[in-house]
Amino acid sequence: MRFRFLNEEHEVVSGGDWxxxxxxxxxxxxxxxFDDLNAQDAASRAAWHALLLARWIAENPPGVGNGWEPYPLxxxxxxxxxxxxxxxxxxxxxxxxLAVQARFLTRRLEVHLLGNHLFANAKALVFAxxxxxxxxxxxxxxxxxxxxxxxxxxQILADGGHFERSTMYQAxxxxxxxxxxxLARAFPAAFAGWQTExxxxxxxxxxxxxxxxxxxHPDGEISxxxxxxxxxxxxxxxxxxxxxxxxxPVVAEMSDGVIQLxxxxxxxxxxxxxxxxxxxxxxxxxxxxxxxxxxxLSFELSWGLQRVICNSGTSRYGRxxxxxxxxxxxxxxxxxxxxxxxxxxxxxxxxxxxxYPVGFGCAESAEALxxxxxxxxxMRLPGRPVHRRTVEVSGDEVRWTDEVTGAGEHRAVxxxxxxxxxxxxxxxxxxWLLVLxxxxxxxxxxxxxxxxxDEETGRYSPEFGLTLERTVLTWAxxxxxxxxxxxxxxxxxx
Length: 494
Description:
The protein contains 10 helices and 21 strands. It has helices at 25-33, 46-59, 70-85, 92-106, 115-131, 135-155, 167-186, 195-214, 236-245, 321-327; strands at residues 2-5, 8-11, 257-261, 266-271, 274-279, 299-303, 306-309, 335-337, 345-346, 350-351, 357-364, 369-375, 386-394, 397-405, 410-417, 423-428, 431-435, 441-446, 454-463, 466-479, 483-491.
């Protein structure tokens, strides 16, 4: 059998291929998830799915290999049960395997990792506890719901955002909540003692959906702050459709104005054709920064339906140089000082000293929308420099100012990474013409005397396993602060 995940294909010929040491672990995790059981047109592949389940059981004995690690086990358990609830029938061996998997999971909950991993564990126990009958199943269900009650309060912030500040994990968390709400409809007796929790879920889902829509671009897909890529979680529109099928009212229409997601630390500004998403957020919870990037004070910008300025995205997990670069400040639309990252990202999922936002705020009037924030991430450097950014959208113009203060000599480098579909042509040392696929033309201008805009080649990864080349415009200032660099983007005059 040949499988394609994360834009990468591999053969699974023998039992050992489920755990091949030559294949990235994340790809192998996807192999064990069984997401295709509930994918588009899954019903047409039901016979093949039944054979695949039988093969997995035969070639993955209990406790052996990647498939028995708690996270892939949790996702697979839910996918198998959703497949049953869609009208398919499990074999006796598969039902037995499900019970063994649930029992195995109860002794290996990822309390050391917490976050989305522990949430997935708890969700799987609730699914298994609702499906099976008896005292043991009741214990699984109760344990899962107790964890969910605690983790929902911890992980979903008051503004609806997931506490890891990743749009991708926001979408996954929203799908989890919709799945749990759907399960409660299928097994009302199992949830009979949890009505107080069930009553909270529609309002919670609405807030999560509003957050996701606010942090998505007009093209309908998510923005790239922290670990984020398309194609891993369902799209925002698919999730809104799921909520509608469950008769959960979701109001998430975007209109001109400012939306401040205060607890998360993001701001959406929309006026005329410009949509700007601004990051004034901490990198995540202090005890769980594993999906954080050093992207503080970056922003993404769409013009109409076209993304114009956007962060790097995420092409992989792991510990290699590309993973480290994608998490670095240089991979984002923000300012690096003295070649350092605003937060010290290291290894695959680690952060040492990290940036904390200071003075996060916004304003709105009929003429202009504004947002501002500073951070203390560079205060660990000699001279304790501070980066402050202000952004403004007024009419058809976007303007942003980067200010660096501190003692001693420093070098500040700002990067403006363009979407690969946006073509850039130099007009002079301080101005570039940006041509969008629609033919629209914008002028990006650096308005600070003595500073010029240069060009470098960058990387853009909108999906795991997919990297595209793109133009990155850069500016650099060296000397003794304060530095003040002002840029603007406006339509080309006719």
